[in-house]
Specification:
Blueprint (H helix, E strand, L loop, with lengths): L33 H17 L3 E5 L3 H16 L7 E3 L11 H11 L3 E5 L16 E6 L10 E5 L9 H9 L6 H20 L13 H7 L1 H6 L62
Parallel strand pairs: 1-2, 1-3, 3-4, 4-5
């Protein structure tokens, strides 16, 4: 009886197993151009040192909210009081470019600094109609056009494309007075946001950072199950002290972006409205 020959297993490349973009010296450009990331760090430092009202505008999926928490914790670590940091969640069916949303952001919060996270982008007027407001956009969705006068850091042209939470984490890491403390309080957020967008089979190969200690501490299972409609440990940054805008009313599902490059389903937003900005993460998630 002839033995059947086993067919070789088909190798399915991991998300990270792609050709990277390199600079003239042959160095990999990742997750975004170094000069753009340095400008973003200077923006964040100036924002924290200004002592002025700051508005975070994250998308309401795992990647966007994780990015918002990372930014919130970075700003507070750099000295910006929490009562000067507000968060605006775009109303379902709208975008940050809609006149209604722009008016809400301007009149409700009147920010001196505004940071937009994971919202996708297109050519548009200023994020809000206030010439004195400084704007930063961190994103990974495919676009070559952005709002006027905004500082932009985009990962979209630098494969393997980092999620916005991972881009935000790597941008903020050098800013923290204690990198070890920052890693302990924010690395798990980068994992949640990345798995939320790219799925739970991601192998975290280079150039992605080695977050093995984080994945072991919290376990991959817990991170993968930390969906925003189930996990109490991840919520939006604190609401402003004044009455929130109508956009804070949560909807059961988020609206996909037309220029999204996501490979995994989007998650629904949290149903609880408790603060997220504890100084350290919980030892385990309890979905």
């Amino acid at each position: 009886m002839k033995e059947k020959k086993l067919k070789p297993r088909l190798h399915v490349p991991d998300y990270c197993e792609v050709e990277t973009v390199k600079d003239e010296g042959g160095k990999t450009i990742w997750p975004a151009p170094a000069d753009a990331m340095e400008r973003a760090r200077a923006f964040i430092r100036a924002c924290a040192q200004s002592g002025k009202p700051t508005l975070l505008v994250p998308d309401k999926d795992a990647d966007g909210l994780s990015s918002g928490v990372i930014l919130h914790r970075t700003l507070t670590a750099l000295g910006l009081p929490t009562d000067l940091i507000s968060t605006h969640i775009v109303t379902k069916g709208s975008s940050i470019h809609d006149s209604t949303e722009r008016d809400l952001m301007s009149t409700t919060y009147n920010p001196s600094y505004i940071i937009v996270l994971d919202q996708g982008s297109r050519a548009a007027p200023r994020v809000i109609d206030n010439s004195s407001t400084k704007s930063l956009i961190l994103d990974h969705h495919l676009s070559d056009s952005f709002p006027e006068d905004a500082l932009v850091v985009s990962a979209c042209h630098y494969p393997p494309v980092a999620t916005t939470s991972l881009l935000t984490y790597l941008t903020c890491l050098p800013l923290h007075p204690s990198p070890t403390t920052f890693t302990e309080s924010c690395a798990y957020l980068a994992c949640i946001g990345t798995h939320g967008d790219l799925g739970n089979t991601l192998k975290w190969l280079p150039p992605f950072p080695d977050l093995t200690p984080t994945l072991k501490q919290h376990t991959k299972k817990a991170i993968n199950e930390a969906r925003l409609d189930r996990a109490p440990s991840l919520h939006l940054p604190e609401r402003p002290s004044h009455p929130p805008s109508p956009s804070y009313q949560r909807e059961p599902k988020s609206t996909p972006k037309s220029n999204a490059t996501r490979t995994a389903p989007r998650n629904s937003p949290p149903t609880a409205a408790s603060p997220c900005c504890a100084s350290t993460p919980p030892p385990k998630f309890t979905p």
